[in-house]
Amino acid sequence: MKKRYLTCLSALLLLGLAPVEAAQALAFRCNSYVIDVGMHKAEVMQKCGLPALRDQKTERRRIGLRRFDPSLIAHSNQNAGNRVSHARTYEHQIAHETAYEIDVQIEEWVYNFGPQRFMQLLRFEDGRLKQIQDLASGH
């Protein structure tokens, strides 16, 4: 009995010490408006006003494109006896990849709605709301 109690207590302590991830949200209410992912930052500011905190940065992202040469795929199908599964193995070898980097404008806004509600972190990418995250209670 004592061993079972200690095992349960240990498990509860480990769960209590595990890091808690901030909750992700798809939308939240601001004044009488619903703010959801995909909105433009001008629309959010019009409905919610100025954020309590605002941070801007530029992030470089690598974008990759993969192109296939249809003539080579058709040729591999003929050699494979028109077996589709065999042609798929060739597609990986036929791909032509092109990669380039782009600049993405990132803005993070924090709204503080007071002690009765969670603060909201909004992440905009190139002017569009991409992520909403619940933070701690406001003040």
How would you describe this structure to a colleague?
The protein is an alpha+beta fold. 32% of the residues lie in helices and 42% in strands. The protein has 4 helices and 7 strands, in the order H-E-E-E-H-E-H-H-E-E-E. It has helices spanning 2-17, 41-48, 70-79, 84-94, and strands spanning 24-25, 27-30, 33-36, 53-67, 96-111, 118-125, 128-137. The longest helix is centred in the N-terminal third of the chain and has 16 residues, at 2-17. It is elongated. 6% of the residues are buried. The model is unreliable at 5-21 and 80-89 (pLDDT under 50).
Blueprint of the fold:
Layout: H1 2-17, E1 24-25, E2 27-30, E3 33-36, H2 41-48, E4 53-67, H3 70-79, H4 84-94, E5 96-111, E6 118-125, E7 128-137
Antiparallel strand pairs: 1-7, 2-3, 4-5, 5-6, 6-7
Helix pairs in contact: 3-4
Number of strands: 7
Structural class: alpha+beta
Strand order of the largest sheet: 1-7-6-5-4
Q: Indicate how many domains the architecture comprises.
A: 1
* Gap between N and C termini: 46 Å
The tally of helices reads: 4
Largest sheet: 5 strands, antiparallel
The dominant shape is elongated
- N-to-C series of helices and strands: HEEEHEHHEEE
Residue fraction in strands: 35-45%
Share of helical residues: 25-40%
Protein name: DUF2845 domain-containing protein
Organism: Undibacterium baiyunense
Pfam families: DUF2845 (PF11006)
Keywords: Signal
